[in-house]
């Protein structure tokens, strides 16, 4: 019995050691250009933590990439002129999502301590908060901003849960620094009865990461 217990503990310790050896964690941040369907684009940001789990037993260079990111994914409506009120109107939203991507990636060595990498896979998004504002402009150029929703999700101006496909490609230096371009293609239409405009997230990003 003692031998069985000893062997079991040894196998577990070897498994944990192997897992730790192939796992890296890091922090990431960058800029977003969000262009939801049927809306104009707005700049935003993304920031969060990420992890990489190497899969050398499957293929050298293959790995899982996953993370938790706070992402600002704003939008603007096209400018509309209300002839009756004689004023221009434009809606601007700034929703924030908690995005959780789980991707499969591959790293290709191209030099001393330099790798090209790419990863792709699904993500889920959880709407947290964000306002919707209406900007009106009179003929003499006076602008007025009013809040239409303090929280676009709880006020039912956007569905809270999103999902889609995303990917990134970039360069890794010295085993720690990463620069990448990414794109997330939202698959769910987030329109609601209060805001019936088609709204599927489309987000281009530029990000930098540091892996510990």
Labels describing this entry:
8-stranded antiparallel barrel, Porin, 212 residues, 13 strands, mainly beta, single chain
Describe this structure in words.
It is a single chain. The protein is mainly beta and 212 residues long. The protein has one domain: Beta Barrel (Porin), CATH 2.40.160.20. Helices cover 9% and strands 60% of the residues. The strands form two sheets. It has an eight-stranded antiparallel β-barrel with strand order 1-2-3-7-8-11-12-13. A hairpin with a 4-residue loop joins strand 5 and strand 6. The relative contact order is 0.18. About 5% of the residues have low confidence.
In the CATH scheme, what's the topology name?
A: Porin
Overall, the morphology is: elongated
Q: How would you state the average pLDDT, rounded? A: 88
Distance between the termini: 40 Å
Instruction: Describe the sheet with the most strands.
Output: 8 strands, antiparallel, barrel
Query: Radius of gyration over alpha carbons?
Result: 23 Å
Structural classification: mainly beta
Widest beta sheet: strand line-up: 1-2-3-7-8-11-12-13
Total discrete domains? 1
Into which percent range does the helicity of residues fall? under 10%
Counting DSSP E segments of at least 2 residues, the number of strands comes to: 13
Report the β-strand fraction as a percent range.
over 45%
Number of distinct helices: 1
Order of helix and strand elements from N to C terminus: HEEEEEEEEEEEEE
């Amino acid at each position: 019995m003692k031998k069985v217990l000893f062997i079991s503990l040894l196998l577990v310790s070897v498994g944990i050691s192997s897992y730790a050896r192939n796992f890296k964690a890091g922090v990431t941040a960058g800029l977003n250009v969000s262009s939801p369907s049927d809306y104009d684009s707005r700049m935003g940001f993304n920031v969060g933590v990420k992890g990489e789990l190497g899969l050398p037993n499957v293929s050298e260079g293959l790995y899982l990439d996953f993370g938790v990111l706070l992402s600002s994914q704003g939008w603007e409506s096209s400018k509309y002129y209300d002839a009756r009120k004689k004023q221009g109107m434009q809606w601007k939203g700034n929703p924030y999502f908690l995005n959780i991507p789980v991707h499969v990636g591959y790293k290709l060595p191209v030099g001393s301590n330099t790798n090209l990498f790419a990863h792709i896979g699904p993500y889920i998004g959880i709407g947290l908060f964000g306002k919707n504002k209406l900007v009106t402009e009179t003929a003499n150029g006076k602008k007025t901003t009013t809040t239409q929703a303090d929280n676009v999700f709880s006020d039912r101006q956007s569905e809270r849960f999103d999902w889609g496909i995303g990917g990134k490609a970039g360069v890794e230096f010295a085993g720690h620094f990463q620069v990448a371009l990414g794109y997330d293609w939202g698959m769910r239409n987030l329109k609601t009865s209060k805001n019936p405009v088609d709204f599927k997230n489309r987000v281009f990003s530029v990000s930098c990461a540091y892996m510990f």
